[in-house]
Design a protein that fits this description.
By secondary structure, this protein is an alpha/beta fold. Strands 2-1-3-4 form a 4-stranded parallel β-sheet, with helices on both faces. β3, α3 and β4 form a beta-alpha-beta unit.
Length: about 130
Amino acid sequence: MSNQIDKDNFEPKIVAFLCHWCSYKAADLAGTSRLAYPTNVRTIRTMCSGAVDPVYIIKALLDGADGVLVGGCVLGDCHYQSGNYKARQKMKILHAQLSALGIDEDRVWLRWISASDGVMFRDVIFEMVEV
């Protein structure tokens, strides 16, 4: 028996921290519109992408997540005015920390997804699962 990963049957685990006002609503819209997307994603609703602590992202990765998505309002459209700008700054710092820890920074994505864009949410999940 080998400890190698069977790449043909590999199903990545994705944790998604989604902003309540936009990206979570886009995920909901994708579901209500019956837009099929992989079931590999586990969503966590946050009030704002800027409220996502990088410690939670690192914990998700250390606990077995293959990828983490942070979804927020489109820049300039944050319900908390500057929350998504704070999220963007936190992600820059986090990517440097991940590299220092030897964790591939491409496992953590930050995407701006508006509430009316269920198609984009679906496409992002497909892209994450395929990578």
